[in-house]
Amino acid sequence: MSFDRSVKIAPSILSADFANFGQEIEAVEAQGADWIHVDVMDGHFVPNLTFGPPMCAAIAKHINTVMDVHLMIAPVDPYIEAFAEAGADVLTAHLEAGAHTHRTLQAIRGAGCKAGLALNPATGLEEVEYLLDMVDLICVMTVNPGFGGQKFIHSQVEKVRRLREMIGDRPIHIEIDGGITPETAPLMTQAGADVLVAGSAVFKGGSVSDPAPYGENIRAIRAAVAG
Ligand SMILES: O=C(CO)[C@H](O)[C@H](O)COP(=O)(O)O
């Protein structure tokens, strides 16, 4: 996976049909998705439960782009190997998930994945400064993690702008996650984000038997950021 600063749309399968992940992923990739975003929730770090490494391994067989795994779990370290073996290309852990983030990021890279660091909306950028050499992606949460379909938190636009300044010319992706639509996406790409996670805005109106709306929704986000 080489570094590329162009805008990438990463549909979150949290908004897909859970009984049909394989077909949903193939449909959304055929309709123009650049990456596939996989939300892992533990019912402890966030108030919702999704799935673990075996489901990720099953999902990975259907992904031909980039498998972007967002771990909303605590602790993280005991599960890194399992998610790497399940096929994660990017493995993102939350700064708030433990006291030893540097060690966690080292372990993620050591397991052969790109290392992602996610920040909750209330988390500042101070602690990120000393981790910049350890990360390939920083995910700025634009909703409180746990559920799809929430409202975009506008204060995160300024955070992304400051983060892009802090990153400078380092090869680090800025990903944004939550409430991304054709209205909010351009605010974030102008501020410096390049990976746009979108669940409800991509999957709305479509299904595996009628996937054309997925393409229309992806193109609407792309057109908004290009304009
Ligand atoms: O991480 C997440 C929730 O914790 C989801 O990826 C995110 O909320 C995307 O959903 P939507 O685009 O519907 O807001």
Automatic annotation (TrEMBL):
Binds 1 divalent metal cation per subunit. Pathway: Carbohydrate degradation. One of its GO terms (biological process) is pentose-phosphate shunt. GO terms for molecular function: D-ribulose-phosphate 3-epimerase activity; metal ion binding. It catalyses: D-ribulose 5-phosphate = D-xylulose 5-phosphate. InterPro entries: Aldolase_TIM, Ribul_P_3_epim, Ribul_P_3_epim-like, RibuloseP-bd_barrel. Substrate binds at S12, H70, G146, F147, G148, G149, D177, G178, G179, G199, S200. A divalent metal cation binds at H37, D39, H70, D177. Keywords: Carbohydrate metabolism, Cobalt, Isomerase, Manganese, Metal-binding, Zinc. The active site is at D39, D177. Transmembrane segments: none annotated. Its cofactor is Mn(2+); Zn(2+); Fe(2+); a divalent metal cation. SUPFAM superfamilies: Ribulose-phoshate binding barrel. Pfam families: Ribul_P_3_epim. GO terms for cellular component: cytoplasm. Its EC number is 5.1.3.1. HAMAP family: RPE. Catalyzes the reversible epimerization of D-ribulose 5-phosphate to D-xylulose 5-phosphate. Belongs to the ribulose-phosphate 3-epimerase family. This is Ribulose-phosphate 3-epimerase. It comes from Roseovarius bejariae.
